[in-house]
Amino acid sequence: MQPNICLIEDDEIMGESLFDRFGLEGFRVEWHHTGLEGMRAVSHKKYDLIISDIHLPDLNGEEIFTRLSAEKRPLPPFIFITGYGSIDRAVRLLKLGAADYISKPFDLDLLVEKAHLLCPEQLYAAADEAHGTDALGISPVMRGIEQSIPRLAKLASTILITGESGVGKEHVAQLVHRHARHEKNAPFVAINCGAVTESLLESELFGHEKGSFTGAAKARKGVFEQAHGGTLFLDEIGEMSLNMQVKLLRAIQERVIVRVGGETIIPVDVRLICATNRDLKKMVEEKTFREDLYYRIHVIRLRIPPLCERKEDVLWFAQLFLKMCAQLSHESHVLSPLGERALLDYDWPGNLRELKHSVERACILSTNPMLDAEAFFDDGSLPPPSPQDAAETAATDGSLTDYMRDCERKFIQQSLEHNHWHFGHTATALGISRKNLWEKMKKLDIHADKSAHTDEE
């Protein structure tokens, strides 16, 4: 789906440049030459992004924004461009909910990049095309797991998935099941071994016959029988008692079960996928997990890293969850730059489950379509601001010149550190001459690291 941009620009040269460039980038652009024309269009059509000049022949961009905001309906992200920069106006508009405020002349590539970030539909279309609808993320480790699933589904009958709670172990198991060559409508049956008491777990796994215990009013199939011909997912297998481990091992090795209170041997044909957030090898050493069962289920192991180890996936999944919320509520939300950074700075101990719940809560509670850091961390768990966050916050209290100077200093400092203080390599990476780099370092009060190798070779 092509995202729709409403462009409000009276300058013919600027308007044509933006219209052509965004068209080449895959956007559908409607160009309006006056403020009234643009405002009427936004009131009657759905856009994914509005880009408006501040100075127009009739209404200025700020008037358009405030009038549309007064209509009490969600607005798409709003980017203002102007040839007359004013830090006071920029701060005011950003506080009112504008996505960005850009002074001319500006880097068109950066504006296009911003538009891509603010239009989730295009992000998802690109992700679906590149990775498919079963994507597990965009990090290299998750792409590797994703690419291994079709082969595992074809060849592996027993798989162990490890990882912290909330990383998506069951989702990976479901993907393996969907890629397997089962008969049509083959079952996928899941059970959390840690959520069932030991007295009931045997019945849940193997079923029971009528009258086998108090309350057994009729015979019942267990999950092994229910999953026959399909996939059985045993979650949190590390919580199982040693006594139950013995019975499970027999069922796995012999591929037969006997219901509680019964005598009939029942063959079962299942793909077994086990999962745990515990260190089973350590449990074997501590004699709390049977070694023979460990090696029986440890045929193929998939480790799902926690979210803090694959930061690339955080914003990708946040955008995915935003899309899911929009489909349910018919209200669109986007991440502000500080909101994005807050999500990246947080460690997410609850992993994807915590991220999903945070996004859902933010979409429900926020009346602003632009979600900032507070929308996700309103319970006091807001991560401390990064130096870049602090610089952006300070910019609202200082001048635009000071803010840009701080950004330039940090960017050059990071490039120098990345290139190990090699001036030639840093200058090349920055696209400037070495002389220009030295002048900027002097102007910005950046001192060379004495311990680093800075000689030109």
Topology:
Blueprint: E1 4-8, H1 12-24, E2 28-32, H2 35-44, E3 49-53, H3 61-69, E4 78-82, H4 87-96, E5 100-103, H5 108-118, H6 120-131, H7 140-155, E6 158-162, H8 169-179, E7 188-192, H9 198-206, H10 223-226, E8 231-235, H11 242-254, E9 256-257, E10 266-267, E11 271-276, H12 280-285, H13 291-297, E12 300-303, H14 312-329, E13 334-335, H15 337-345, H16 351-365, E14 370-371, H17 373-376, H18 387-395, H19 400-418, H20 423-430, H21 434-443
Parallel strand pairs: 1-2, 1-3, 3-4, 4-5, 6-11, 6-12, 7-8, 8-11, 13-14
Antiparallel strand pairs: 9-10
Task: Summarize this structure as a short list of keywords or feature phrases.
single chain; 457 residues; alpha/beta; Rossmann fold; Helicase, Ruva Protein, domain 3; 4 domains; 5-stranded parallel beta sheet; 14 strands; elongated
Characterization of the model:
- With 457 residues, the chain is α/β, with parallel strands linked by helices.
- It folds into four domains: 4-118, Response regulator (Rossmann fold), CATH 3.40.50; 140-307, Rossmann fold, CATH 3.40.50; 311-387, Helicase, Ruva Protein, domain 3 (Orthogonal Bundle); 399-443, Arc Repressor Mutant, subunit A (Orthogonal Bundle), CATH 1.10.10.
- 49% of the residues lie in helices and 12% in strands.
- The protein has 21 helices and 14 strands.
- It has helices at residues 12-24, 35-44, 61-69, 87-96, 108-118, 120-131, 140-155, 169-179, 198-206, 223-226, 242-254, 280-285, 291-297, 312-329, 337-345, 351-365, 373-376, 387-395, 400-418, 423-430, 434-443, and strands at residues 4-8, 28-32, 49-53, 78-82, 100-103, 158-162, 188-192, 231-235, 256-257, 266-267, 271-276, 300-303, 334-335, 370-371.
- The strands form four sheets. A five-stranded parallel β-sheet has the order 2-1-3-4-5, with helices on both faces. A five-stranded parallel β-sheet has the order 7-8-11-6-12.
- Helix 4 (87-96) links the parallel strand 4 (78-82) and strand 5 (100-103).
- It is elongated and about 90 Å long.
